[in-house]
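quick one, two chains, predict together pls
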Amino acid sequence: MNSLLEAGTAIYVAMAVALSVWIGIFVYLWRIDTQARALKRELQREREQWPRGEGDAPPRASVTRVSQAEGEPVERSSRE
Amino acid sequence: MAVTERLGQIGKLLIGVWIAGIAVAMFLVIPQYEGLGNAGRIIIMHVPTAWVSVLAFAVSALFSGLYLWKRRPAHDHYALAAAESGFLFTALATVTGMIFSQVVWGIYWNWDPRQTSIFVLLLIYAALFALRSAIDDPARRRQLSAVYSLFAFVTVPFLVFVAPRIADSTLHPNCAFIQGSKCDGITLEVGTIGLLGDRKVQLLALERQGDVVTAAVKVSEPGLTSETVLRPSFDLAAGEMVARPEFPGLRYQLGLEAVDLRANTALLNIEAPGTGLLENRRTLFTFLAAIGGFTALFFWLLTLRATLLDVQWALAQREGSRL
């Protein structure tokens, strides 16, 4: 462990840590970016398939928030 | 896949490789800074992130104005995404600055004017996020936060560029990174007292030996806890500084930048470690590359976060719930 912190090697260790952190952040951003674009495409396709104001609307789910007798909040979903 | 999307993917890959290259250059390509050693390399991260945060807050203000004009949710999403990115980059600049502070001043946080102003800036934008989360009605939330964001941006140039520079008592090397600029220093007559950073200095005497003039300067620690006499010198023939002693316990040096023997005055200045570091070509190019890389990263973060907010809004509309 101490050999990693010696004057000659410490700078390489610091660089490796900085690079690892950046690679981790980059991979994370890349994955979120891919998923976000896929979701956006999906929504776009849905919008084109069922334009607003026309008869065959896509299934809609509505969420109703109610309280139970004990006061614990619950959510019930229903399909229209 | 559309051509623009493919180009976007290539651009993002380039950002990844570019910033990885900066990380390597930061450690292996640029030379050590005089007086700071390897710790000074953090400047390559610190200054560009601070500058990009200003850009991010400007973009946030721009989209806030656009929202107030056009009332399009997408503009609000971009304004929020830019403010969040700006906050992130400001936090990065603060943390890297704290590490720099520990190396140079021996303490992570000492409420230096620069540290205080960036802390206030963080609080101002944290309040924007608190404001957004406190309002349920989307239209009202967007409207109020757009107005707030515009007012918040008015403070940014003052807090980042003006306040730290008008403060006399700062050790932050304001003049270190802009080529051609220099710290003003202080001109003292023999026997008079002045402030350099947070150190009280008194010019005790000027002694000439040949072409070299040596100044005896009494330096007092903040709170007058201790005093010491430093002897910086100046070569009249060459017109340059000779001896630049370090302030006690600091990596900063005391420089004698000019002498007027007839008026019995001397121009004293703090020579911050890193002053003139961009004169080195490798450091300058790495620094410029870091600015470019972090700016590109900001625009990626901006579009990514705005896309996520768009999707969130579209889903909420589809589900018929309010967001």
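Chain A touches chain B through 25 residues (CB under 8 Å).
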